Structures are given as C-alpha cells and as structure tokens.
Batch of 2 targets.
Target 1
Amino acid sequence: MNVTTLAKSPQREVNYAPRVFDLDAAPLRELNLALHQVTDASDEPSWEVINPKGSHAVAAGVAQPIAVEVRGSVGYYCGGMNDKASITVHGSAGPGVGENMMSGQITVKGDASQYAGATGRGGLLVIEGNASSRCGISMKGIDIVVRGNVGHMSAFMAQSGNLVVLGDAGDALGDSIYEARLFVRGSVKSLGADCIKKEMRPEHIAKLKELLDRAGITDVKPEEFTRYGSARTLYNFNIDNADAY
Amino acid sequence: MCGIVGLFLKDKTLEPQLGAMLSEMLVMLTDRGPDSAGIAVYGASTKGKAKVTIQSPSPEADFAGLEADLGKKIDAKVKLLAKSTHAVIDVPADKVEAAREAIAELRPSVRIMGAGEAIEIYKEVGLPVDVVKRFDVTKMTGTHGIGHTRMATESAVTTLGAHPFSTGPDECLVHNGSLSNHNNLRRELIREGMKFETENDTEVAAAYLSSKIAHGQNLGQALESSVNDLDGFFTFVVGTKNGFGVVRDAIACKPAVLAETDRYVAFGSEYRALAKLPGIEDAKVWEPEPSTVYFWEH
C-alpha cells in the first residue's frame, strides 16, 4: 500500500466567497485599483460588482484569471484590455465593451452598444443579446459570438479572429476586411467592400463548433451558418484605380 | 461630446416631478459637456394664452417695468415672471408676433429663447447643476422636456450657442454631433425668410425642421427629411407641443439609449442618465437604429 504524505503548505488566506463591491458606496477607481492589485488569482478568485448603473470602464485592465460578476448595466469600455479574467455583465453594455481584450472571456447577458470587442487581440466575447454598429471593428485575433444581430459596419477592417453572429448582420459587413472569419446564421443586409461569401470547409465547421461550445450555445448547428471573408482585392494597389486619386 | 436627456411622460402622476427627474438625468451627464446647459419644459397650456421666454445679459435693468411697457405697447394684458437671466411672459396667443417685435424695440439687448403655448426654455453657460439650480428647474411641472449639456465644437460658448434651440412655436431641438453642410442650408433658409441668431450648426437644424413643419410636414416627416438633407453627425432629440422625437444619422456614432415603460419614454446619451428612473429595471431599453425616426405624441 502506497501512502502519500502531503507536505504541509504554508497557511495562505484564500477568500473563496466573492468580494462584493458596491459602486453606490465606493468610487469606480477603488474597484479597478483593487482588481489591478490582485497578484495571485487564487487569493481572491471571485468578485462581484453591484449597482454599476451605467458606470464607465468597469473592470477595465484586469490582468489575472479572476471571475467578475457585474450585476446590472455598464457604460463605456467595460472589461477593456481584459487579460485572462472572466467577466460577466448581468445587464447591457455601453460602447466599446471588451475593447482591445487580450485573453479571457467577457459575457454580456443583455445587449452591447457600438464597437463591441474593437481591436481585440484574443479571448472570447459573448453577447447574448444584440450588438449594435461596428461590432468587432479592427479585430485582431479576438473571437466574438453574438446570439442576436449585429449592426452596420461590423468587422470593419477586421484583421484576424472570428465573428459569429446567430442572427442577422446590418449594412456593409466586413468592409475592407483582412483575414478575420465571419460566420452569419441569418441574413446580411449588405457586404462591405472586398467582403465576399466563402465556402464552409470542414475546418470551418470544426472551428465554429468549438466557438459555439465555448460560448455555451447548444441549440444551433455550425452547418446553419454562412462564412464571409476577404476577397483580397484591396491588398495591393491596383494601377487601374490611379485615376481615382 | 455633448449629453442629451429627454423625458416624455405617459403617467400624469409623474408630471409634478418632471423638472426634478430631468435635472437629475442631465446632471448625471455633466462630464459629456461642461460648458453650457439648457432645458426645455412643456408645461400646462391655457387656451388663448402663449408664453414667450426671454433672456437678458442685464436682467435687472431689462426686466424692470417691461411688463407694463409691453402691455401698453401691444395693448394687452401681459404677465412677466423673472427667473435669474430669463423671464417668461404670458401674452394672448394672437399677440405673440406683436410681442416679439415690441420686445425687440423696447429692450434691444433682450433675446427671445422661444415661444409657444406650452414651452419654456432656460439655458446658460455653466455646469448643468448650476443651470438647473439657477432656474429652479427641479420644481417645474410638465408633460415632457428635453435637456442638453454642451461641449462646444461648431460655435462659441455663449448663452445663445447653448441648446435647446427653438425656431418655431413650441418647437425645440437639441443635438449631439456636428453638421458639415449648415452654412449652405442656412443660406437657403435665410432666402426663405428665416432669421438666425448665431453661427451655430444646431440652430440650422432646428430652423430646417421648423421650415419643413411650416410647409405642412408633421414632425415625423420633417425628421425623415433631415436624414437625407443634413450632412454630418447627429443624434437629435426634438420636442413639439404634444410630441417628442429622436433621430440619428446613418453612421450613428453619437450615442443614444431609449427606455420605455407604461409611465414614460426616456432618452439618454448614455444609460447612466436613465439608471435612477422609476421602474428602469423592467423598462424596455434599446439603442435607436440609425436613420430611423422615433416619435411619441400625447
């Protein structure tokens, strides 16, 4: 019989109950300062923010794999620059939710305003309601899953990453797109310059399945989506267009 | 930036709180535009009566004796209620034009902010919190109202450059954004006979809508036309005697949030402005679509 003796680890104080921050009582700066001061996520893995009432920059710049539950709607730039954290907004989000996210996950239970996930470099942004205009503008590696619709000029100049839309897309989807992949289940009002419909190959089905799984979406199939991406005709200057300048 | 708030009440029991609710909403958006603020409130109207809101840089000198002087000049019973730099003058409805002309003659430094059966307009340079206090806005009763806090871009920081702008009876408009074809439009509207007080782009938008309404369009149609004829960025909130409307340009980069319950329709440049309204937790809250006119009427 093999008996393992556990080495005694030094006592560390671990706060498993969520640390609750009431934004009616404490200023936003105190919340973000406290979130930024976490050096080891296992010390304080769970946070809760109450009464956000549309505050800006809630849980922006978090750089530890902690969980932040925001109870209510937030204003501009919630979870901006997020790195590793898992942030859930139990409400709607104002402009620029998850802007320049690096990694981790942000979930918005309600709707998101314009430019959700703009310039995001990594991680997963899930919007369970609708996202408005310019969702995923200039995305650079982030994955965005929107259960509802996205507004006009979504994925404008998108460089890499995946934008998954279960509903419909507005005007000028993927205008001037580079190498991001767009998957839309519903209708597309119009495609932007150099954005075209593309074939769904097995690797796209597999990627889409993975993204839907990660977003916790089980009621739709990857096969129901259409893929859009770059026609790559704007990559190089075309001498025939010289007269336009 | 600029911040806009609007409140259109469906529940009459909220009417005594209109000024207080609107003030709280506006103050919440102070950091969107701290250089000047204004508010238009649509209150009770009496048949046959109209209200003219005036403003003066030297109210003590200008308002003293104006009630008597104006009454004599237009041969009617008038009543003046001064509030800081502004005053509201009650005149018979058929004497509004005569009163406008008489005021210009009697007190040349007085400016007319607006006129109509229900509208009162107060606007000044300064923070929203000071402006609402100065004019006792929190105590105002009304059916609907619009507020604006300004970060000036297109014209100077002056009382007249503050919003709301009113260019027609009981009409007013506030704007977040900037127009790029306002000089051309202003010239066209001047040719039609409209008068302008400022170099401001928003005044042109207000005059444009007034001109459309004067040509027989309703507010909804006038707003539809504005989407085609105005070039630039705009989120507009407009008020008429019975109505309240919202429209955004096709690009829709200027923020807007609408909320509706059984008791009210509310507009805010940001959700923050709406967060303390009664029953907001269960309200329908949405972002107005670009190039789409939203309009409510009593």
Note: Chain B touches chain A at residues 250-253, 255, 257, 270-276, 285-287, 289-290 (CB under 8 Å).
Target 2
Amino acid sequence: MNPILRVAGLSVRLGGSHILQGVTFDVAPAGVTALLGRNGAGKTTTLRAILGEVPARGTVEYDGRAVLGRATHRLVRDGLAYVPEDRCVFAGLTVAENLRLAERVPDPDYALVHELFPELKARAAQRAGTLSGGQQQMVAIARVLLNPNRLLLVDEPTKGLAPAVVSAVATVLGRVAARVPVLLVEQNLAVVRKLADDAVVIEAGRVAWRGPADELLGDNETTRSLLGVGRH
Amino acid sequence: MKRFVPPALLLLAAVAPFSTLAVPGLFEGPLNSPGTLQLLAVCLVFGALALGYDLLFGRAGLLSFGHALYIAAGAYGVDILVSHYGWSLWAAAPVAVLGAATLAALLGSVALRTSGIAFSMVTLAFAQVGFILVNRDPGGLTGGEEGLPMVTAGLPSALVGVTNTVNLYWLALAVLVVIVLVVHTIDRAPLGRTLIGLRDDERRIAVVGLSPYRVKLLAFVVAGALAALGGVVHALVVGGASPHVASSDLTLALIVMAVLGGAGTRWGALAGGLLYAYLDQRLARLGGDLPGPLSEPLFLLGTLFILAVYFVPGGLAGLRTRWEPLRRAVRRRQVADSPT
Amino acid sequence: MSTVILLTLTGLGLAALYFLIASGLSLVFGLAGVLNFAHGLFLSAGAYATWWAAPHVGLPLAVVLGIVAAAATGALVELVLIRPLYARHTEQVLVTVGLSLAGVALLQSVWGADARVFLRPAWASQVTGILGANVPDDRFLLIGAAVLVLVALLAFLRWTRYGLIIRAGVENRAMVRALGIDVRNAFTLVFAIGGALAGLAGILGGMYFTSISPGQGASLLIFAFIVVVIGGLGSITGSAVAAAGVGLLQQFVNYYGTAGAGDVSVVVLLAAVLLLRPAGVAGKAVTA
C-alpha cells in the first residue's frame, strides 16, 4: 500500500535557527503513526510545515501529489485535517459556532460528533472559552470529524488533561483511526502504546528512529535514550 | 578605502560654501548663494532627524508615530525662550533639549507599556496633543497656526541675516555630525546590540536578564533628545517654529525617509533624509509647472515611497547589497572569458 | 440643564463619527493585523464622491454612491496594495502611510486644498426642543446613523457565515485557515466594510461641519485611533463604548475648561486606560 503522506528532506529555518534539518518519513494509509521526540525537537514544526503554515524546503507528498507551497486552506479542503496543539478553539465563539465554522461539506456528520461527545450537544450555546481543557479538546477533535477526511494531523491531544479525560480522548482517537489514518504527536507513551502502529522519533530536527511502535516501546533502553523517559 | 568615504564627504560638505560652482537643474543659484545654502541646510537637518528617528525605528524596531512631538519641543522650546523670554541661544538650546528628553522619559514610560501597533497609536495620540496645543496658542506663546518667528535679538549676530546663511549651514552640518556620532557610538556599544536583539526577539533579551522596558525607554529618551536638537537647528535655519514641525505628517515623512534610505543601516536613514528633503523642496518649487497631481510634492513622494516598499525593500542602502552579487557575477564572467 | 443636554447630544453626535471610523479600523486591525493609515482616504473618497455627485443625481442617491465609492476604494486597496505584502505587517503599515500622504495630495490637486461647501438635508438644519434645550437636528442624524450601523454590524457578525469567520479570525487567523477557510476573502470584505463605514462618516461629517476638505480624514482619524485603542482592538462594542466616552469627555471638557482642554483630556484618558488596563476596555490584548 502506498503511504498517504511522504515527507522527504523537510527543512525549516525560523529566525536564524535551523529547526528541521531534512526530516524524512512516511505515514501509512491506515492506523496511527506516532511522531515522537523531546520538547523542542521539531514535532509541531513538522506538522505546521506539512500544512504550509511555516516556510519549508524539501518534499511533502500527500496522496501522491507534491503539496509544499500550496495554501493551507486548500490542503485542508482536500481532506488533510489538523487538530492543533493547545486545542485553539475560538474562545469567544459558542460551541455550536465553533463547529459551524468548521463545516466544509453540505452534510456535516453531526451524528458521529454527538455520538462520540454527547456533552457538546448539551453545551452548544456555551462559550468555548469557558469549557474545561478536556471539553475544549472534544471541540477541537469534533471540528475535524464533521467533515470527510483522508488524513488527520493531531498535535498533543492529551496535553494538560486529567487522567480520566486522557483515556477518553485516546478511546475516541482509536475509533477515529479505524476509519482515517492519523499522524499523532504525543508525549504520553501509554497513549502511544495503545494507539500507534508505527513510530517516528525526531531528535534535534532529524529523524533518529523509524519503525513499528511496539519495537520502540518494547526496548526500554532505546526509549529512554531517544525520549528521555521510559518505564520505571 | 571605504572608511575614508564619510570623512571625505564631510570635508566636501564643509568646504562646499566656498565654491561658486553652479549646478543647473540641481540648484537654482551657485553653491554659495544663500538660497542654495538654506536648501542644503534644511536637507542636513532632515538627514540628522531621520537618522535620530532610525535609532527607534530601524534599530530598536519601535514604530513611533509621535516623533514630531520632540522635534517640536526643541523648535518651540528654543523659539519661546529666545523670542518671549529673551534668553540667549546658548542657554535656551540645552534647556529645550533637556526639557524634550524629560518629556520623552515621561511619555515613553507610559507608551512603552504597550508594544507593536498599539505603541504606534499611543505615541501618535501623545504627539497629537502637542500639535493641538501649538495650534491653540496657549497664553500667546506659540503663535497658533501662524507659528512663531524667531526674534533675532537673542541670537548670536553670526547666525542672523541672509549673508550669514553659510553659518547656519555649518551649524546644521555640525549638528548632523554630532547626531551621527551619537547614533554610531550607540550602534557599537552594548546598548546598540541589545536594541537590535530586542527588535529581532524580545524574549531572548529578557532571558539574558536585561529589562527590555528599560532598554527601550533609554533609546526612546536618547532619540527624543536628538530630535529636539534637530528641532532647535530647524528653528534657526527656517527662522522660527510652525505647527508643521509638530504634525503627524512630519513623523510620517521621517518614516518615509528612513525606509527610502534603508532603515536600520548605518547611513541609510541619513541618505533618505537628505534625498527626501531635497526632493520635497525642489518639487515644491518646480510644482507649478507640472500637470495635475504631479504638482503636489507629497503625491510624488508618497507614490515613490509605496514603490520603494514593494520593489526596494532595503531602501537605498539595500540597493548596494543588491548590486553586489550582480557585480560579482559580471566580474566572474570577465575572468571566465579572459584567455588563460 | 439645557446646556448639559445640548453638550451630551453634541458629544454623542461626535462619538457617532468616531465610532463609524473606529469600527472599521478596529475590524481591519483585528482581522488582518493592518494598522490602516489610509482609512482617512476612504473617508474622503466617500465625502468627495457624494459632494461631486449630489448636484447631478440628488443627495440621497449621491450618498449611496459615496458609500459605494468608499467601499470600492477599501476593497481595491486591500487587493492591490495590502495582499501582496501578506503577513509583512510593518510594510503593510508603511504602504498605508504612503497612500495616506499621496491620497491627500491627490485630492488637493484635483479639488484644491480649501474646504468645499457640503449639502445636507433641509431638516438637518432645524432644531428640536428637548427639556428646554434647542438641539440641532443634525445630531440626531449622526447618532441615528451610528446606532443603525452598530446594530447592523453586530447582527452581521452574529448571524452570518462571514461574520462568524471574521469573529474567529480576529481571535486566531491561522486556525481559521487550518479549518479550510480562505481567510483572505474576509480581509477584502472587512476592508470594504471599513471603507463603507468610513465613507459614511465622511458624508455625515460633511453634513455636520457643512464642508469637506482633503485633510479632514486625517484629523478625525487620530481620535478614531484613540477610540480603537481604548475600546480594544477588534471589538465593535468596545469601539462603541469608547467612542461615546471620548466624544462626551471632549465636549464637556471643551465647554467647561479652556479651549483645547477637551482634546488633551481624551489623550489623558487614553494614558489612564493604558496604565490601568493595558488590554483596553474590551479586554483583548493590545499588542500586535
């Protein structure tokens, strides 16, 4: 099966520092590919470069087409959806407005959203800024689920959430990944273990490890040296 | 070689008034005629003002829209002290400059609580108060919309009268040199590097442990003092102060000068100021002969400025660096073509 | 008492002009991040278009033409001058500075530097007695127009798709793009709306002052800037509240204090707001 996304030699310079220095990896057309690495390794920058939010060099092929330099909104309309770090819900808009803004098709899938997040239906008129972190994350994920997508880029969906909420979010992501491939940036290795099929580790702007997620997480030594964490 | 160019140009500028050379087209009279010297003196003053402004704009990255306030503080300060209170110029000028610096410290401490575009708006608002005040003629001090002509009794006789225009020219040149020295000294000092650091990335400087607020305030006060110094000379050269020196149009013109010349570069703003002031005065005189909007100097300068922002991002100073690769390419071609 | 009523209504009339200019500035800044010095040019475009057309087509149609001309000027400036400098905010400000200089000069060369007499509806020259005060009717014209615009703007922002995009874009442009929305169309739209409102302000200002001049836009613009900063960048209700505060303060201080004190007090108010609430009354961060 051809990968849904191929990244080759991706380089980003921002304000004089070389943040990405030739990142190369593929994302399989099904399941979850985890993008791992320490803080500041360049994971978020990789996602933003793929989306065209930061100027980058190299090659990014989405569904067989080179996309670097294309406008972000066009990529998203082509089914490359993005759940950013820190949720980025619109705090001054209501939950319903946040969702309405995200509609890209005539028949948005509210049935799925309300099945996964019944809470959002009850809170439709509430301002998103007054939601809890977990609820905001639900809005952020719901926004992309309204539309048919062919690849999700999800950046640290469990960051700063309470343990119970983390597992709820992970369950939802698992259900989503059954239909759409996901490129997931995640620090919580328990979540990675549960969801990820493949793993890519970035270190100082370069890919330091690629392979099956089980293999990486099964090897405590490698995990510790690459990610600075491991099972105790 | 390059380092001798500025002193050579300075020497040339200093001896220019001894020349009776006539440059038809560029100037109306010979170089040493009072009219030409006056025009050149105004150019020098604006070169100095633009460079002083670039300390804020190009170096510290502070887009102040209220610089005219400090120029006006210098011009009106010295004019009021000399014309109304009969002070001598040598007493009035330092008081005016110090007063402007104090004003800059006061207002800067408020304005610098904001950043980015809000800072621009706040400085603009403060300067607008100055403009309104000088127009309202409080206590008959500023002469209102007519402005306040300088009473010459308090001035040294060497600066009075058409025949002494050359001395005003030299005075303007001297002040220009002073401002160049101050700005270039700051460029080389730790303060200058900190300012540029602030412009590029404020967080980085905060990490180093300096207070960005204090550094910016210091730059704001120094720039205010330099503006007032320029304002003093402007009042002397044109024989008084008028509301135009307090108007936001003047600040906008300074921005145009800095950008035209190349903001943040060593000589860019100075060159831009000279060029702008020259064009402004010459176009105003030629204006009547040109058709339609071309008769308005500001139409031409504004259009020129917009084109410069698009097509010459580095200003005049940027042109040189753009030429450099081309020249090198040509030289390489010549080397390659020559038989070996 | 009658003086207070007259001053209040005059202050609110002035506030109406400030609001019409400031709301457009605020939207343009909030969404597109552009501090628009050419906004005064939009105002003049509306005023001069109406002044020029009124003798030919009558005042009501001329007003419509003026607003359309100002909106077109705004959209054109965004498309031709601002858009190519995408995300380079300082350059964008510089271009609007150049445009404001060149624009005023262009108006001067075409229609002269002197003020031109501006037509107004006959009823606007009459007075209405309210609690003993003889209030000129042009105040009601200004206040009524501003209230209508405020209600219409809020409804537009609240109930339409583009309103939703604009509100979201003011919060986070990049995220709007990441939802697959071409936010640049919204930029053009806010420039057109800002232009139309500024044009309306120019026309109403012409009726109120009974004259227009090339520099009029610039002098009103500075108070509009102050209103925008006090009200919070990107907030329409903030602009409305701040405009009313600024207009009233200016009128009352000018009447009870010395000449010019009202203008100074407005700037003192600005300084006080910045010291106490650096985020402006609407609470949105006043940084770029």
Note: Chain C has eleven helices and four strands.
